[in-house]
Structure formats: structure tokens, C-alpha cells
């Protein structure tokens, strides 16, 4: 059986009903949820019936132990929590705008551009210390999906991974230079020169398939006439990457030069003297085409562009 139409759900669903669903999950009973929300038990029972009628299906399994969400119930409650969180963010941003400090900004970033973003955020935070900033690190494809959904105001990523790049406004930020890093105890850590052939038999930490950085590495091996390494460790997290390198001195990883400098500067890893012939795709500052930007989002965008320009000099 199909659920009611979206228009039907929107016209009948109320925010207080979502709060009831969350409370039922937390307490496991209608009585406990009713007490939390200052409702009578008959009133809570009636409200739950209205919610289940709105969705056209039962959301809980009823037993002597109380109420337990079924599969659909877990799904609805998960989105209820998201809506509640979004409303909290809405209020936070409204307060910020009314007080004149920009409110709240959600920004996405791919792994290699994290140092670039954190420098820009530091500058903005000094100018607007009361502004809240959410940072989401993920792949370009995932970040563009969150921009589509309105969950991110902007992102440092690449539109080349999208089949619909015309949906976005993008600005060049900075060329990306790549480096290979390893544990300070790696067998080649002190070598004067390293070739790709030298590294062909080591295990690599890389982005997953079809990501720009992964495609570049595959192209490097192909052009060198070498077989691409097997048994890869795939991650989009800089922290996971360096944690793996710390645990296994034989691993090597392809990262941006900024990420490499951060870790080598803190003595966490060593940059191997390998020269790559391929050019990586530049970073772009991406927003949804035509979407209005808050004062805080514009401030952060300006800081990112200025920081990228300074790094390129």
C-alpha cells in the first residue's frame, strides 16, 4: 500500500505531532510521552491515531512492554528529528540575523580543502565571534546532493562529478597540488627520490573509485605502464587516513599538499619525494544557482576566495 500524497501529509501534519513521536520512542510508552509533553494520555492517544492516519499506516508495535517503532516508524521518527533540528537551526539563524552577526552557516568541504576552509573560518570567527558554522566533510558528489537539498549554504568541492553542473554557481578558488605521504617510519621515508614503481607494491589509502583524486592516481599508474595496486583502503576522511598511516608504517596515501603540510608540520607523517605528472582538478566554491545567501555565508565565501588567492601567490 502506498502512503498518502506529499500534499496530503503536509496539510495534515503538525510539528507538535512530530515531538510526540520522538517522545514515544524515547519513553517507550504513551504515558511517559504524554507526561513529557504535558498532555493527557487520552489526548496523546488521539494525537497518535491522527498521525498514523496521516501516514496511512501504523508506526508502532503495541505490546505489554509498551510501544516499539516498526520499520516505517523508525523512518518517520528519524525525519522528525531532522525537522526538529532544522527548526532549531532556523531559530538560531533568525536570532543571528536580528542581532546583526550573520546567524548560522553550513559549509561542505572535500578532504584536501580542509586546511583552506579552516583558515577562512578562523578569519570569519574573529570578525563575527557569535556566528555559528557547521562543517560537513564528504565527497564532492555527496556535498552537491546536500546543496541540492538546501542543507548546505556552500561547499568547496568540484562540480565535474555532477551530471547537472548547470544547477550550481561556482567560483575558482585554488589549484590543487597532490602529494604522497607515509608514516615517518616508512621504508622510503628517508629516500632522496621515489618513483611510482617503488610504491607499486605498497598498500595505498585512497578515495573511492570515480573520485577525481582516485582517477588521477589511476592515470599515473596507467601512464607509467604499471598495474594499479590492489587491496586498497578507501576513505574520504583525513583523520582516518592519518590514523591508518600511524598504525601501519608500510601504507602510503595520496592527499592534497595542504593536508600533507599540516601532518608533516606536526611530525605526524612524511611527504615522500615523488613527482606526479598529472594535474588535479582545482577547488571550486559552489552554491545552488540563484539561491540567496545570508550575510554570514557571503562573509565566509569572501574569506575562502581571499585565502585561496593568497595561497596561489
UniProtKB/TrEMBL annotation:
InterPro entries: HTH-type_LysR_regulators, LysR_HTH_N, LysR_subst-bd, WH-like_DNA-bd_sf, WH_DNA-bd_sf. One of its GO terms (molecular function) is DNA-binding transcription factor activity. Belongs to the LysR transcriptional regulatory family. The keyword Transcription applies. Residues 13-70 form the HTH lysR-type domain. GO terms for cellular component: cytosol. PANTHER family: HTH-TYPE TRANSCRIPTIONAL REGULATOR YBHD, NITROGEN ASSIMILATION TRANSCRIPTIONAL ACTIVATOR-RELATED. This is Galactose-binding protein regulator. Keywords: DNA-binding, Transcription, Transcription regulation. It comes from Pandoraea sputorum.
